[in-house]
């Protein structure tokens, strides 16, 4: 099984990237092949108005990671009550409709506040649902990340850590179950 984990921001030193790497390690420990997409590595040319019609060649590795995935895990922080703009731009740059059409996806949200990025995850569910992805219903919200994640990006709260571990196992099962429908 091939899982692509998307770290949903391009912020330097992002907690989202650290958590994404830890989530990828969970899937790898269970035998999956993983790719972590760091949106900080996106080419600056994607901000050009011409990028919608003429995709920068430097996007191809990102396209390949999404298109070859048996499942996508999106780790999104909350910026001003929503998903980061770079994450939405990245989604908009991906090939349509094949990037998400009948592709399993799950979501983890993290924020400094108490709700753990509930709003961005709900926004992402709407976008991916619109694009006919198979949305895994078990979402995980990680609140208070300034104190709630260790230096490697893993939750210090055993309950939240357990939710992430459970989500990873459930998502792999979900990917396997919907594979014949793809």
Q: What would your notes on this structure say?
A:
The chain has helices at 15-29, 60-67, 85-93, 118-130, 145-148, 158-178, and strands spanning 2-7, 33-38, 71-77, 104-110, 134-135, 140-142. With 182 residues, it is of the alpha/beta class. Strands 1, 2, 3, 4, 5 and 6 form a six-stranded parallel beta sheet that branches. The protein is globular and about 45 Å long.
- Sheet/helix structural class: alpha/beta
Determine the mean pLDDT. Answer: 96
Q: How many β strands by DSSP? A: 6
Provide the gyration radius in Å.
15 Å
Termini distance?
14 Å
Give the overall form: globular
Total DSSP helices: 6
Assembly category: single chain
Give the H and E element order: EHEHEHEHEEHH
Return residue spans where pLDDT drops below 50 for at least 5 consecutive residues.
none
Largest sheet: 6 strands, parallel
What share of the residues lie within helices? 25-40%
Beta-strand percent range: 15-25%
């Amino acid at each position: 099984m091939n899982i692509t984990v998307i770290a949903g921001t391009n912020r330097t030193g992002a907690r989202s990237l650290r958590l994404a790497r830890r989530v990828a390690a969970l899937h790898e420990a269970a035998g999956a092949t993983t790719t972590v997409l760091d949106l900080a590595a996106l080419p600056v040319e994607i901000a050009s108005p011409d990028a919608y019609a003429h995709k920068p060649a430097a996007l191809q590795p990102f396209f390949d990671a999404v298109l070859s995935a048996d499942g996508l895990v999106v780790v999104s922080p909350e910026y001003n009550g929503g998903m980061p703009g770079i994450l939405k731009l990245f989604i908009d740059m991906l090939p349509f409709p094949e990037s998400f059409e009948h592709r399993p996806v799950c979501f983890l949200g993290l924020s400094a506040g108490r709700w753990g990025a509930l709003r961005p995850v709900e926004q992402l569910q709407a976008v991916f649902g619109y694009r006919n992805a198979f949305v895994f219903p078990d979402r995980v919200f990680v609140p208070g990340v300034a104190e709630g994640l260790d230096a490697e990006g893993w939750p210090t709260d055993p309950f939240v850590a357990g939710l992430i571990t459970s989500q990873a196992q459930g998502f792999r099962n979900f990917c396997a179950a919907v594979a014949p429908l793809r």
